[in-house]
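Hi Q.,

Before the meeting this afternoon, I wanted you to have the zinc ion prediction in hand. No need to reply - just skim if you have a minute. The sequence and ligand are here:
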Amino acid sequence: GLNSRLVKEGKGKFSEQVWYADGMYGPAIKEIVNWLVKARSVAENDAQRKTFELLIAYYQSGDLKKFDEYNIAWVADTNSVVDTVNGFIEVYDDALGYRGTWESVVSIKDAEASKRIAAISGQAQWFEDNSPLLPEHKKKNVVGISAKVITVVVEGGDAAPTTPIGINLPNANWIRAQHGSKSVNLGNIVEAYDQAKNGDGQLEEFTRDEAELARAKEHGSLAHKLHVDMHEVIGHASGQIEAGIGTPKETLKSYASALEEARADLVGLYYIMDPKLVEMGLMPSLEVGKAAYDSYIRSGMMVQLSRLELGEQLEESHMRNRQLVAAWAYEHGKAENVVVKEVVDGKTYFVVKDYEKLRVIFGELLREIQRIKSKGDFAAGKALVETYGVKVDRALHEEVLRRYQALNVAPYAGFIQPKLVPVMEGDKIVDVK
Ligand SMILES: [Zn+2]
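Predicted structure with the ligand bound:
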């Protein structure tokens, strides 16, 4: 399960070491429980108190049924201003996709920014109905999309020092189907990334011309935010699996994660060029969508390779997904010059020439990946990921590393966690420094 290690103890004998208060990692987990007990005493409301109780019971017993109960209670608690993600959750680090890595995120709700995401969430059914999915793979009733923008206070475990920018949980598909899920956009993190990117020379180096650069500077930040919002809110939530077909983890195995990220990204890409978002007042013009397309192609075809050592292949799900989407679109639009590769003074650029057609191509890939998920088509899923999402063009990789190195910026950013000191008045906390 999510919270254990399988150990071979000689011939044909296996034992499971469960991570819980009296098991493996016991001392650390007891510390987690201590803090959760403290948190329970200051819970905002009964719904939140219940989540803490269930989470404590889970850590004390190691029983994954308790973790399910916790997740159901956590999804139901949408009113609390302070929220937390806590547990052995994401399986990205396990090649087989079973063991969860521990993480914790403590956050407060950003009421103003949450309005943007709420507007998208409020139209979820419209987005589902108008998507390019095959009719039988569309949800008739999109349920349980709860979305907000949060300000991260502190992160630990897998979520630090590198952090996600969006979170959509729980991962258990049956809980998502029956009880819904919660989506959050980590507002202050996204903002920090965008500000850092605007000043480090990356855009100047990898954009092809003044127009692309100007578009990135003017609209890149909003494009990025909207794309992340749609990825989490209407992306992961959309589509349905056909009756009798197993979960993606069962059917698509080690390819499930990259394909799911691609699916969610494609929903965002498809709609960021839709006039609907302009009508909704979420963006001033389709220039925002164009900036999103430029950036996605730049990153997926080239810039993300800066994070990889020479000779390595793509292993991480999000990186595989980005290259898969960008490279598939590039190839399928090649005959019509939708995205073109230009080499100027020894520098390679991938330039979007036809945004409307690129949107159609994104829609086609979305429909195909949804079909793969809905039907559990392992062979097709494997072929997509292996053909487009794994292999790296060595010469291009060398070029990217050389150009990136010259900029002298780190390919990954990390965040330093704040040390929070309470300001006490008697035994009451009145402020935090
Ligand atoms: Zn995702």
